[in-house]
Amino acid sequence: MTAPVLEARALTRELPGLVPVTLVRDINMVVEPGEFVAITGPSGSGKSSLLYLLGLLDTPTGGEVLVDGNATAGLSENQLADLRLARFGFVFQFHFLLPEFSARANVEIPMRRLRALGAKEIRARAEWLLDALGLADHADKLPEQMSGGQRQRVAIARALANDPGVILADEPTGNLDSKSAEVVFTMFRHLAREQNRAVVVVTHDTDLAATADRRIHLVDGSLA
Amino acid sequence: MALPLGLSIAVRHLVHRRRQTLTSLVGVSLGVAFFIGIASMMQGFQRDFVNRIIDVAPHITIKDEYRLAPVQPVEAAYPGAVVELRGIKPKEEVRGLRGARAIIDALEEMPGLKVAPTLSGNILLRFGSRDISANVTGIVPDRERLVTKLEKDLIAGSLQSLYTAANGIIIGEGIALKAGIGLDDMVSVVSPEGVVMRMKVVGIFRSGLTLMDNFDTYALMKKAQVLQNRPNVINRIRIRLDDVEQAADLAKTIEARFGYRSESWQEQSSNVLGIFVIQNAIMYSTVGAILIVACFGIFNVISTVVYEKTKDIGILKSMGFRETDIRRIFVYQGLMVGIIGMLLGWALGYGLVEFMGTLDFKMEGFVRAQGFILYRTPKHYVISGAMALVASTFAAWLPARRASRMKPVDIVRGAA
Predict the structure, then answer these.
(1) What was the pLDDT predicted at B324?
(2) Could you tell me the sign of the dihedral formed by the alpha carbons of A200, A202, A206, A208, in that order?
(3) Per-residue pLDDT at B1 exceeds 70
(4) Which residues contact A153 (CB under 8 A, 6 or more apart)?
(5) pLDDT digit string, tens, across residues B2-38
(6) I need a surface site. Which of A80, A166, A214, B58 has the fewest CB within 10 A?
(7) Diameter of chain A by CA atoms?
(8) Predicted-complex ipTM score
(9) CB within 8 Å: A112 and B317
(10) Smallest CA–CA separation between B399 and chain A, in Å?
(11) Which residues in chain A touch residue B312, judged by CB atoms under 8 angstroms apart?
């Protein structure tokens, strides 16, 4: 059996201080390819913190994260950055598109950084991704010329740019109306089931979370 | 789209903050332009002055003086002993340079130099009711020609007429103007020895060096010796070199060989050359200050961009940009301001120099000049450009480093 794409072992994150705060406590979890996992819990329960740890954006104070079965604990900042570039796609509550770049240019950025494709292929893939997300007509628009739902879909296209094995999303529908939110979630399900990617979504929307393959509920940083 | 990714992000950032970018561009280009303008003016003047000195004055002058007091017998007999003799002065040579003939012969055997013996001393020029103190140099015109360009500097009369006139004297333009003396006028010359001689002005020279024009006169060697009551005495040997740069070294060699104080042109003009050093220091610090102010501008723009673009930095880092990628984006911005500012500054500086070249006015300081004397050299462009690039890169480096060290998690968490 192949190794899971993402595995957390006794993952713990504390904020140092006079009174140390534990954001995430002793989490063990495994995410397989093709799985759509929702992390839920009340605000302040450590959902986002857990996601950042899984996405190698934050360093755990205890335990470890394995990507494709490989330990990440000893990796340098640069190695972590390279791993994120090739293996992860992030979607945040805010779209975080670069405002000076068109939708297509935004989608091209991770590919241009990875430099695995030539300029023509990068452009073609960006257009293909936007087309797949129903944004073919908006490729040349700036983020400010698009609606919130469209921007979030551009952000998803960007997350998919380097064909990552793992999509991590932090409240991706937090700023969207229910209809757009539904579209986004459908898309995540599609990415997991049809494209065999691991999708981990943090959300406080229980209705949407109910559509995931698996739900992880956090209370005070621990699995509940 | 052909631009590298980091560069294209950098360009968009700068275009986005157009006004601030323009302000810092103006700062950098003014710094560069002023450097080029001021440097061209100052170095033009300095080089002109040095050229004139090299042209007009001898490159090495051997004087009938000693630099140090002679070694006393007691010191020679007991070297290192606890002996102190006070009030010993360097020897004065009443008889001028002893064995001058032999020294000249020895010098003439060296390659690359011309030698002229002279006797110089003080005189009082009396013309009508005007008394002017001056310095008279007794020369041998045929030799003088080889060593200085006195002949070319004559604005009236000729060097040759020193031979033909009974008692000829050549005076500087400054003296002529001060006393209202014209060519062929007769003047009374009184020497400290009490000798009075009626002399005819057979030439007036203008060297361009104010000091020389106001104080120097020339007469035949014989006449000068009579005036000073020092028959057959020579007290200066003046040397002209083919290679001016060797003056200081050769002066030392000559001094070591003959014992007489030998001064290179640098030593003789050391007061003015010293002023040049200070001038240059002032110029560099002034222009440096302009560029530092410009750097604050760059620092300001890029710090603002970094602050405004915190979210972008966060997403770029989370999607896998390395610290160096982020740093590069912002250093590029400084570099771009530096490069464009440098190019604008070059154009502006070129225009400034050409404009100064059209100005016309009279100036009299160390030298007499018409308008600015400008020195145009690529070196000024290289130096100012390098300063602009180094300064702007450094100004960008600090905020760029701060940006590169931001933790993506702090940014995305903060925004969410």
Answers:
(1) 92
(2) negative
(3) no
(4) A133, A134, A135, A183, A184, A187
(5) 578 888 888 888 888 888 888 888 888 988 998 899 8
(6) A214
(7) 54
(8) 0.89
(9) no
(10) 19
(11) 96, 98-99
CA A173 to chain centre: 12
pLDDT tens digit sequence for A54-75 = 999 988 999 999 999 888 988 9
Virtual CA dihedral for A153, A158, A163, A167, nearest 10 degrees?
-60
CA dihedral B128, B131, B136, B140 (to 10 degrees): 0
| Residue with the two structure tokens 């640098």 | B266
Chain B CB contacts of A82 below 8 Å: 320, 322
Residues 76-135 of A with CB under 8 A from B: 77-78, 81-86, 88-90, 92-94, 96, 98-101, 109-110, 112-114, 119
Beta partners for A202?
A: A39, A170
Pairing of strands B168-172, B186-190: unpaired
* Pair type for strands B236-241 and B154-157: unpaired
Q: Domains in chain A, ordered, with CATH?
A: 6-217 (3.40.50.300)
Nearest to B295 by CA among B385, B390, B401: B390
Residue A94 has a pLDDT of 85
3-state secondary structure B265-279: HHHHCHHHHHHHHHH
Residues of A in contact with B311 (CB under 8 A): 94, 96
Closest Cα in chain B, distance from residue A93 (Å): 6
Other Cβ atoms less than 10 A from the Cβ of B84: the count is 7
Other CB atoms within a 10 A radius of the CB of residue B277 amount to 10
Q: What digits encode the pLDDT tens for the residues A120-169? A: 999 999 999 999 888 989 999 999 999 988 999 999 999 999 999 999 99
* A29 token code pair: 């979890």
Residue B90 is given by DSSP the state: P
Q: Spell out which residues of chain B touch residue A118, defining contact as CB-CB under 8 Å.
A: none
Please report, for residues A118, B104, B114, the alpha-carbon distance to residue B60 in angstroms, rounded to integers and kept in the order given.
Answer: 71, 13, 10
Contact call for A170 and B412, based on CB within 8 A: yes
CB B161 within 8 A of CB B202: yes
Mean pLDDT of chain B: 87
